[in-house]
Write a structure and sequence with these properties.
With 93 residues, the chain is α+β, with helices and mostly antiparallel strands. Helices cover 28% and strands 27% of the residues. The protein has a 5-stranded antiparallel beta sheet, with no helix packed on it.
């Protein structure tokens, strides 16, 4: 089975992805031109990779403000259902 990782948000050069039926804990994958990271939901803890300081602060605040939508997408991804786009942060990185 091919692994699918839909793009759920994009802001200021940061792309946010979520895999279907991915492992616990709930998390998102972040990609930028010079970084890759995995960040847990809903607390924003860095699980793998590196995030530039400014990106980390923006992503942490964004995760808190969009926690409900992100966790709903996690539930959908686990069930193999289509994911929704999540609003970007008010201020980009």
């Amino acid at each position: 089975m091919d692994v699918v990782m839909p793009l759920i948000c994009k802001f200021s050069g940061v792309k946010v992805y979520m895999y279907y039926q991915d492992h616990l804990p709930p998390h998102i994958h972040l990609r930028g031109t010079d970084f890759k990271a995995v960040v847990s939901l809903p607390d924003g803890k860095l699980l793998a990779g590196l995030l530039p300081r400014g990106v980390k602060a923006t992503v942490t605040a964004w995760i808190k403000s969009e926690a409900k939508a992100l966790m709903e997408n996690w539930r959908r991804a686990q069930a193999g259902e289509p994911l929704s786009r999540v609003n970007p942060p008010e201020k980009g990185v």
